[in-house]
Amino acid sequence: MTTFPLTRKRRLRSSSSIRGLVAEHALTANDLIWPVFVLEGKNRKEAIKSMPGVFRLSQDLLIEKLGKLYDLGLNAVALFPVVSAEKKTEFAEEAYNDDGLVQRTIRAIKIVLPELLVISDIALDPYTIHGQDGIIDEEGYVLNDETIDVLTKQAHSHALAGVDIVAPSDMMDGRIIAIRMTLEDQDFPNTSILAYSAKYASCFYGPFRDAVGSAGNLGKSSKESYQMNPANSKEAIDEIAMDINEGADMIMVKPGMPYLDIIAKASEKFNTPIFAYQVSGEYAMLQSAIDNGYLHEKKAIMESLLCFKRAGCDAILSYYTDRVLDYLNEK
Ligand code: PBG
């Protein structure tokens, strides 16, 4: 590169028009997935204390809101059920109840908004009395292969309901191929898999566990025997490679902002689309600074999401999706 004065890097920053022309990345409606918390019942809207501005919604209110967001360009919604205490069991049978909350919500969305992609979480934590993502033994250890048996039933049940994309977020070894084979065997060759491949054992999921009501069930136990150690980065590359080989259509890195280095590495290495999850704790951090007047709401949100694009993400799950769609449609 030539040096000053032949090169003045500031020339291409001198007006908004030239900055626009030379921009390497942009955030559009095509990059966004809206994660939502679904409640039983009708006309119900509950605030979540640790996620100010995010609400749990009953199916009717959710579908009303989805209709508006679809008109603003929303492509996909990710469903997270709030399962009542009496439906939680040791073996998570409710996870594959064809008439369960998630299954009913998938069907209802598909009737009203057939083009909107519905993504469902494949993991057992909303359904277990102990709040772990799988089946446990007497010591509380999450059993890998026994858990996969239930996850495949859950994925099949969601596919029957008409889900477009199943998203295993449980971190069991070998679950992607097991789910892929089940979907093939059951004649759902076009149901896609978004694998939470590099999912870290992160404290940033705290507000989510409040939102779905699994925090109390989990108590003092942790998910460190299956979710990844935040100290590791090479291991994420192995996890992602395994999931791609097992048939994942898209892979996910989670959390997002503290893990942009993992996204950047993965996007250099793999050609499979990479999604990231700006998780509940990231939302809580940004939103508390915004609510205190320490950060500018729109600027902070938009910059946080653009950085995911720069790191190499194809799409981002963000609780800010509804607000961002409004921003992107402003004149
Ligand atoms: C459950 C699941 C979690 C999240 C998504 N799916 C929580 C966990 O693993 O404990 C977290 C999302 C968020 O924090 O926003 N398997």
Describe this structure in words.
With about 325 residues, this protein is an alpha/beta fold. It has one domain: Alpha-Beta Barrel (TIM Barrel). The protein has helices at about 15-20, 60-70, 100-110, 145-160, 175-185, 205-210, 215-220, 235-245, 260-270, 280-290, 295-310, 320-330, and strands at about 30-40, 45, 55-60, 75-80, 115-120, 165-170, 190-200, 250-255, 275-280, 315-320. An 8-stranded parallel barrel has the order 1-4-5-6-7-8-9-10, surrounded by 8 helices. It is globular. The chain starts with 15 loop residues before the first helix and ends with a helix.
- The residue-averaged pLDDT reads 97
Helix content: 25-40%
SSE order, as H and E? Answer: HEEEHEHEHEHEHHHEHEHHEH
Question: How many helices?
Answer: 12
CATH class annotation: Alpha Beta
Instruction: From the 3D structure, determine the CATH topology.
Output: TIM Barrel
Q: Per DSSP, what share of the residues sits in E-state strands of 2 or more residues?
A: 15-25%
For the report, how would you describe the main beta sheet? 8 strands, parallel, barrel
Low-confidence stretches: none
Q: In CATH, what is the homologous superfamily?
A: Aldolase class I
SS class: alpha/beta
The value of Rg in angstroms is 20 Å
Instruction: State the end-to-end CA separation.
Output: 38 Å
Strand order of the largest sheet: 1-4-5-6-7-8-9-10
Counting DSSP E segments of at least 2 residues, the number of strands comes to 10
What would the principal axes of the Cα set say about the shape?
Answer: globular
What ligand molecules are bound, each kind once? ligand PBG
Instruction: Indicate how many domains the architecture comprises.
Output: 1
What is the level-2 CATH architecture name? Alpha-Beta Barrel
